[in-house]
Amino acid sequence: MPDIERLLVAFDATPLAEKALEHALTTYPETEITVLHVIDYVEERYGAESLVGTEELRERAHNRSSKLLDNATDMAAEHDRTVSTAIRVGDPAREIIRYAEERDVDTIVIGSHGRSFVVRMLLGSVAEAVVRRAPTPVLVVR
Amino acid sequence: MPDIERLLVAFDATPLAEKALEHALTTYPETEITVLHVIDYVEERYGAESLVGTEELRERAHNRSSKLLDNATDMAAEHDRTVSTAIRVGDPAREIIRYAEERDVDTIVIGSHGRSFVVRMLLGSVAEAVVRRAPTPVLVVR
């Protein structure tokens, strides 16, 4: 049994995030898993094409985030697992790292490519930033 | 027990490589571990200050590599473990990835900062290149 008590899976709306969670569920069958989604308003705004009001944008983002984490919970249930979920708002890499520090996480699991190519080029790769700055080992799944 | 049968630990003469191996030994107590050191003649030449002949340089590099892997074997023995070891020659990231592909490795474990700062700036970060191009999940240890 691995000497890992608490995994944090960084989760966004990409196939690789699902793969990262799937990997965590199958590879660490006895480890406590928290699935974290970070709402990034900067990225939200690109998608909104500046036509929607801020309040509505936030509500939409939080609804989307909840649905995303429901998917994660469903994926876990398919493996007869339960996972904790969490939502944070801010810069994804910074929030993932902050969460890992606060919750005494052993390892962060993250997909190698989160965001779409264009947004990554604009904002930088979340996975890369997490690998550079995380206080824990980081398992990068592709 | 984790669903991982074969770990590859990328190992060079840095404290973080030892930490990566230590992490693999303690976190995956029942997984087969191979410790790979890649001799990088380009880097060797920087260290040699161009005063030593090529043949002697190669012999020295291979001796150093063997000693390094003896250290890895000793570290494993302290955990009542045995590890396989392997030496390859070439570009570290490329050889690590090639080895992982050939040997059907499940996960590559690597320290976040292998080489010295100056050499990394000249040649690029091995860990980063492995994370970008590996066929497997990569566990980056810091």
Quick recap:
2 copies of one chain form a homodimer. The first copy, chain A, has 142 residues and is α/β, with parallel strands linked by helices. Helix content of chain A is 51%, strand content 20%.
Rg of chain A computed from alpha carbons, rounded to a whole number of angstroms: 15 Å
Oligomer: homodimer
- The global form of chain A is globular
The side-by-side strand order for the widest beta sheet of chain A comes to: 3-2-1-4-5
> Percentage of helical residues of chain A?
40-55%
Q: From the 3D coordinates, which CATH architecture of chain A would you assign?
A: 3-Layer(aba) Sandwich
Q: Briefly note the CATH topology name of chain A.
A: Rossmann fold
CATH class of chain A: Alpha Beta
* Percent in strands of chain A: 15-25%
Gap from first CA to last CA of chain A:
24 Å
How many distinct folded domains of chain A? 1
Query: Number of helical segments of chain A?
Result: 6
Largest chain-chain contact?
Answer: A-B, 25 and 25 residues
Order of helix and strand elements from N to C terminus of chain A: EHEHHEHEHHE
Sheet with the most strands of chain A?
5 strands, parallel
Structural class of chain A: alpha/beta
Low-confidence sequence ranges of chain A: none
Arithmetic mean pLDDT of chain A: 84
Q: CATH superfamily of chain A, called what?
A: HUPs
